[in-house]
Amino acid sequence: MKNQIFKTLLFSLFIFSIQHSSAQITVYGSDACYGIKLSDNNFEQLKKSTVYFVVPKYLIEDEVAFSEVIKKSWKYSKIEIIDETKFDNYLGHENAVFLSLGYSLFNGRISETYYELWKFKNSEKGFGFNDNNKLVFGSFNIEYECDIRHKLAVAKSNQVNEILQQKNKIVNFKPYIIANYLKIMSKSFSSQVSICAPHNVAQDALLDLSRDTLYITTNFLYKVNYFEDCEIEKLEETDLMSKYPFNYKFITMDELNKKLNSKKKFYYYIFLEESSNLDVYSNMGELIFRSDVFQPPNRKLQMKQLIKAINKKTK
After folding, report:
1. Is the pLDDT at 209 greater than 50, yes or no?
2. What is the pTM of this model?
């Protein structure tokens, strides 16, 4: 019986959710965000809990170094890194909060994959993985490499879990990239202000961005058709960036990860095909700009909104 229960829990590490937003990062606060509002008691629950960050071992090259980076970035409560085989050990803990993989479906097909921060409302084992028994605090999106994205794009809903259980590479799962997501979330919980709509971001920093360099991940320049076996279209940089009058530089995901281990402040944009907003972050754990929702992502319109927001601050 225990083996059967564990098998069910292991498959449920990729937890289906109907509440997830399509933004690259979402943090719920004391103000309403997508119809969700956290209470003072919810914040207290999170603060006194231990966050168990469920990470398959194959995603981590150096477990000790990864743990150190994560613990330095997440300041709101205790956090521990566990692999999926240990997940079952903590399910009955009253003060356990989980940061684990999840996905959402649209028209029977997978639309997004992400890491979601949540806890059981009822912490008894076996009470069930469902939205009615989950208190969700926030999430950040992840994106798989092209071959897995293709499999997920054409898979039926009952095939998704099997695909996700494979040793799949996540393009933005890099230690310092993940750490900055957690730094952003931790700061937001401390202020109890949600990361949701465009008005809840640090737009005053846009004045600094006008004088600085915006680092953009290189996948911004490629359009991938996941339904056609990863057919790639190279986009023209001049067409996308010709109206951006400020400094910018394209950077690979690995280069960005290394640069994030820097104390000098800089600004960056990670392009993810599944995320419907253009988000600009600083390496100090700030979200300084969020565009409106465009699904699928419209690069030119998103850049147009960023340009308009910067120009408004520089006048």
Report:
1. yes
2. 0.90
